Amino acid sequence: MTDPLKAFMQANALTAPSFAPDSRYHGLDTAQWTRPDGEAVTYVRRRFIPPPENFATLQEHRVESGDRLDNLAAQYLGDPQQYWRLCDGNGAVRPVELTDTVGRRLRITLPEGVPGGSGE
User: Distance between CA atoms of 42 and 15, rounded to whole angstroms?
Assistant: First the structure.
């Protein structure tokens, strides 16, 4: 009996993944790589972090002991899965760096390119 998932993948059913509009991967192009055994693997092209100056600051948060990005995203953005917006707005490649230092000021920003906030 054929494995249904393997058959699905071999049929190239995953050639164009679709990400939700609020995903950091939404709108990114995909590409394919062919493994030495001939199997095609679809992947999402690299996402570059936008420059922090592309974001308007709404407010700042001073990091406290025990702060976590998912909790801060839930508090300020209404969705813990939007933690990546905190990373983008602060130019962070490694999310853990944002809460490593107690007292650090984190920018809470509007989405990229949206004008407004106190930083405008």
Answer: 6
Are 40 and 33 in contact by the 8 Å Cβ rule? The answer is: yes
Coil/strand/helix, residue 17: coil
Q: Which phi and psi angles does 114 have, rounded to 5°? A: -85, 115
Give tens-digit pLDDT for 62-84.
999 999 999 999 999 999 999 99
Q: What is the pLDDT of residues 47-66, one digit of tens each?
A: 888 999 999 999 999 999 99
- CATH (one of 3.40.50.1400, 3.10.350.10, 2.60.40.10, 3.40.50.970) for 52-109: 3.10.350.10
DSSP H helices, the chain, are 4-10, 69-77, 83-89, 97-100
Residue 83's nearest CA partner among 61, 51, 116, 103 is 61
pTM for the full predicted model: 0.71
- Provide the greatest CA pair distance for the chain: 62
Give the Cα separation of 79 and 70 in Å (integer).
8
